[in-house]
Inverse folding.
């Protein structure tokens, strides 16, 4: 979970709505059972307990808001692709760099195997850097993935195109600031 009744809301700390959506992307696509605390999808900004327990019925429960739609889309993708729901998880890129480096803010993981359908595969690449696009590459080294060379991966989250796994198992993908791709 991102929030619960015992902690201040994610947005209370001054984090952006884009960061919240990235956090939802991680939470809903990582291994385990996601738990959405009521109101996060409505962008509630409550502070410390009890200010984090806003009256939900007063919100009007807007189902047309961008964050609500984002969560709805992520849940639909999780249901559609068994790798996101039941696959094992392996981190393929994690950086500590946060500046101008090409991979600043990148975290990427594969979901495959486990109890997912045979051949099910997903790659999630999240860019937490809000300043510039980032890619899982540094000093000439590219991210290596488990998908076979020549595999064409499709961005099912944004429809931002296709990406082909190179002959050496590497993959190059640029992720816009404070956003993610699910391939």
């Amino acid at each position: 979970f991102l929030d619960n009744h015992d902690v201040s809301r994610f947005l209370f700390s001054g984090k952006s709505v884009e960061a919240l959506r990235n956090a939802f992307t991680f939470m809903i696509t990582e291994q385990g059972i996601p738990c959405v605390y009521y109101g996060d999808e409505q962008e509630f900004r409550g502070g410390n307990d009890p200010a984090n327990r806003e009256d939900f019925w007063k919100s009007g429960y807007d189902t047309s808001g961008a964050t609500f739609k984002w969560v709805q889309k992520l849940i639909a993708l999780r249901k559609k692709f068994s790798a996101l729901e039941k696959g094992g998880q392996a981190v393929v890129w994690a950086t500590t760099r946060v500046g101008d480096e090409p991979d600043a803010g990148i975290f990427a993981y594969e979901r495959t195997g486990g109890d997912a359908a045979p051949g099910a595969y997903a790659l999630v690449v999240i860019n937490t850097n809000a300043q510039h696009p980032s890619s899982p590459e540094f000093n000439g080294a590219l991210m290596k993935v488990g998908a076979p060379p020549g595999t064409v991966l499709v961005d099912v989250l944004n429809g931002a195109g296709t990406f082909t796994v190179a002959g050496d198992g590497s993959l190059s993908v640029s992720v816009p600031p404070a956003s993610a791709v699910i391939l």
In short: Residues 107 and 158 are 18 Å apart (CA to CA). The helical segments are 17-29, 66-80, 82-86. Strands lie at 88-94, 106-112, 121-127, 137-138, 141-144, 152-154, 162-164, 170-171, 179-182. The mean pLDDT is 96.
